[in-house]
């Protein structure tokens, strides 16, 4: 196991057909990736389906089954996160497993990351291992071209604010907008160090 996907990240990448592109950017493959056990259930019913809609969720269910399921982390790491209200049970499993096994995470949960920055043990072991969606989209723009990324993200325009702002037809420079979001997030989660996408303007 080398990479964990939280539910938001899985939905973004799978809906845009970016999973294998993201794996290529990060130097992993499907066998080294894991997702939460509840993802197919969440796509069928509940808050995730209500937010994204059936038309978006239904095609993602068979894709979710192709991604291996995360083995539970030990209580030693999980217990550090369970009292933190801003980190839900799924994110707690993801972060605990990543910290315990020293592996990377693609996360779309800004609220959880802002809370994670205050937990010293996680700040140390996860430094440079957390890939936020803005960083991944920057890397994908560099890898595939911004217009190709824009085209594939069309189904997500109505449900994702960052996607809508950065990739709207009126924005001529999606990477510049993504970089602005990324730099803002870097400041908000400090001292937690995020993964830097391998593009020229990121410092």
How is this structure best described in words?
The chain has helices at 7-15, 19-26, 39-44, 47-52, 54-57, 60-66, 75-78, 89-101, 110-116, 120-125, 133-144, 146-152, 161-167, 174-189; strands at 3-5, 33-35, 104-107, 130-132. 41% of the residues are buried. The protein is globular, with a radius of gyration of 16 Å. The two termini are 29 Å apart. It has one domain. The protein has 203 residues and is α/β, with parallel strands linked by helices.
Layout of secondary structure:
Elements: E1 3-5, H1 7-15, H2 19-26, E2 33-35, H3 39-44, H4 47-52, H5 54-57, H6 60-66, H7 75-78, H8 89-101, E3 104-107, H9 110-116, H10 120-125, E4 130-132, H11 133-144, H12 146-152, H13 161-167, H14 174-189
Parallel strand pairs: 1-2, 1-3, 3-4
Helix pairs in contact: 11-12, 11-14, 13-14
CA gyration radius, whole angstroms: 16 Å
Number of domains: 1
Strand content: 5-15%
Low-confidence stretches: none
What's the average pLDDT? 95
Q: Write down how many β-strands occur, each being a DSSP E stretch of 2 or more residues.
A: 4
Task: Give the structure's gist in a few sentences.
This protein has helices at residues 7-15, 19-26, 39-44, 47-52, 54-57, 60-66, 75-78, 89-101, 110-116, 120-125, 133-144, 146-152, 161-167, 174-189, and strands spanning 3-5, 33-35, 104-107, 130-132. It is 55% helix and 6% strand.
Which features does this protein show?
single chain; 203 residues; alpha/beta; 4-stranded parallel sheet; 55% helix
